[in-house]
Amino acid sequence: MSDCTKLDGAVHVDEGATGKILFNYTWPILLSQIIQEMYNVADCAVVGRFAGALALAAAGTAALPMSVAVNFFVGFSSGISTMSSALFGSRDHDRLRELISSIMKMTFICGILLSVLIFAISPGYLSYTRVPGDVSPYALIYLRICSLGVCAQLVNNMVTALLRSVGDSSSPMKLFAVSALVNVVGDVFFVAVMKKGVAGAAAATAFSQWLLSVMLLIRLKKLDPGISIMNAKGSSGSRDMFTALGRGIPAGLQALFMSISSILIRFHINGFGSAAIAGMNVFARIEGLCYLPSFAFGIALTAFVGQNMGAKKPERIRDCVRMSVKAMVLIMIPLSLALCLGAPALSLIFTTDEGVIANAVEAVRYTLPLYVFYAVNQVYLGAVKGMGNTFYPMVCTLVCYALFRVGWCGVLLKTFVTMRVVYLSYAVSFLLMFIMIMPVYRASLNRNIRGASLKAEMEI
Predict the structure, then answer these.
(1) What is the reported pLDDT for 212?
(2) CA pair distance 193, 381, nearest whole angstrom
């Protein structure tokens, strides 16, 4: 084990008051998501107001194929972080450096290949998903330009997850704020001033992603001088790499299943026309206000639990999960109610099209009442993954958010030709996930607590 006791800017969350540590670690993640959502709102508003409803629909449609690749790496990086956080919690910094170096080299290679692939398959994807003819030309432009920034997005997600796994949640937040500001300024300049439409919005997005990559890589290097993508040479790094992949791939598939199900459901949404497509895009922006705290606590729990697992302190896991569940209930119930009531006014931020607004409001009011279950699920999923089990969360996501939603829409839309069928597929799936994940979390926690107690008794 390394003699090093500290990496620059890293924080051990397995020490100190649980509530205070969890709060200090979580709020930068939440603020990062708020900044992201503010950017998404600004981007959506600029495109909708200055480029029109077709451009707004095109941006939402084109984002899906990129989300398949990017979301896989979001999940993959969260799985990798369970390994890096455990190594950091056990104070084995030499192995941690080797793992980070190996992972970053792989991320760059995958990012370049995915950028090329998405650019090449863009026309085929738009044709296969039956994107309306009035939306397709704009969607193709947006998709191909944004594909140039896919590699950067993969790097950003991986570096962010690695930094958070060693307790540094504030640096990614600060750097993302700079990138988001650059992106919004670019949107206003290219779309509102230069009148470049979706092409301008896509160019601003790609540029800001690469800017963020440069800043994050500099921060990662400052974490420790020994971390470099050209410095993965130790045998321990190779062994840990395989273990990390065993955790990262199921977590990546978990996110991938959600993206694929969204694409499959998009078949049905596209059949309702451009107003329904744009309405779902507006709904996604409003829903993001509920998603923010849910995502923040889920990400925080993965790293928090991982470090405490590495430090052999499972009893702290129970305390932080209880606090997180209570926080989600207290936050989500009043927030979802407020968004249901304010949906018409919020929709006006993005568009004045009455058809788009009607679809967005209906989506909000059919989906958000059960969103508290989604928020609690994120806590349990993050905790289970932090304990090293990324396979079962993948299965839960496949069953609840992919197979169930797609099957629900495929069957019921044959009889009830209304978008309400789609909205309800999301709401019911939240409850189904809760039923599947909560008992497994409790069983995993109890098993780890018994194991720690047994080990302590043997040492005595």
Answers:
(1) 92
(2) 44
